[in-house]
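#structure-requests
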Amino acid sequence: MEKLLWSIALPGFGQLLNGKYIKAIVFIFLELFINIQGNFNTVILLSFHGKIEEAIQQTNYGWLMFYPCLYFFAMWDAYRDDGRGKDRYAFLPFVFAAYFVTIGLIYSTNLKLFGVLFGPVWLPMLSVIPGVVIGLFLKGLFRNTS
């Protein structure tokens, strides 16, 4: 579980703890590259200050669309390499979380919930919840039918 939590902090950290140094360097490089290209740190800062419209303007969506898949793949990979992902359906919560976060990012420029525009940080973050829930549900369903 520790490796998964370190991967949440930064993709590649879980791989470092697992002793997968080349993979860790690749994940860290990709995270930094996509983060810089997508202007993600500025977008996060603006979003945390409530400047959602400015965050939308600063976001490079073409690059930021890569982030959810990289992020959740690195988390799953660290979880699997730690020996916890032996269940053949362990990947489902990670896959569905990445999918829902990507969908949240796509609609973050114009989807309002309760009359509020959540933008490119908050809507994708909220989208993790249904993704993980659906992934866990399907994991349990498939495990019981196998």
